[in-house]
What we know:
The chain has helices spanning 11-22, 85-95, 109-124, 155-167, 172-184, 233-248, 268-284, 315-321; strands at residues 27-30, 33-39, 49-56, 73-79, 101-106, 129-134, 186-192, 212-215, 226-229, 255-262, 288-295, 305-313, 325-326, 331-332. The chain is of the alpha/beta class.
Amino acid sequence: MQKILNSPTEFAAEMLEGILAAYPRQLEAVGGDNHALVRADAPVEGKVAIVTGGGSGHLPLFLGYVGKGMLDGVAVGDVFQSPSADQMVEVTKRVHGGAGVLYLYGNYGGDVLNFDLAADLAAAEGIRVETVIGADDVASAPQGEESRRRGIAGIFFLYKVAGAAADAGYDLDAVVAATTKAAQHTRTMGVALSPVTLPANGKPTFELPVGEMEIGMGIHGEPGIRRTTLGLADSIAEELMTKIDEDLGLHSGDEVAVLMNGLGSTPQEELYIMFRKVSEILKAKNVSVYRTYVGEFATSLEMAGASISVMRVDDELKQFIDHPVHTPFFTQA
């Protein structure tokens, strides 16, 4: 294991300490627990609060998007582990500004269990909580079984829409409706080129020999749909976009937002090579790209690989996508 760290067991704790030290004007720990973070000006009175959470190892997910125009709070677990329901409740209470709270997170068993429990506990304290779950990974379950799909990089679009709607003064029901709409129009497909090594055990979580790739692998090393010889950038982009298009059903005249995401160890140059082909594919279908994001938005430690997320947009969703954001890891004027 070649990692820059002190103690493998303190990896998440020291990372959180460092982020709080780096962004003291933007982030604040709740009750001295660095695993429960909120925007420094929370609560924002009269605004729907957006809360997310999940395991460490995916920066800038999840805490990197806490700030004006996006999220209000986050509960962070250890590497690839769910945070506790108690941490989620403490974040919820700290960000609640009187207009209710939206829980917005990825579709993973531990997160679902703990967020559901946290919602019940928050309700007992008089806080209304609604939930939208990101489940954008088309590789993880077929059409008709969307509720089984994993949430991966496409949740960035859901954060963007939910945060913008809340910041614009929408009530909780309207924020839920806008975020649900975004989720229904978002699909993601990825490819992994290397495994990851968890600091606590020092060994790769799976084996992926040099010269091979796995199409559809999850961000924790969950199995994909096929393993094959590493292909050319154009062929990889074509395969990922074909799966997305088959599921989303893009039509001539559609407009989309595209997220070209690196998984941790992929140079941005390679992401732009892939996006070049994505752009060609969409242009050939007469689908317009309204806005593009290229970079690392949802990673998996040092995994090499990339994912493509596509969200079909209309005038309402474009308004939310364009909304300004200021967070530690992402700013949009």
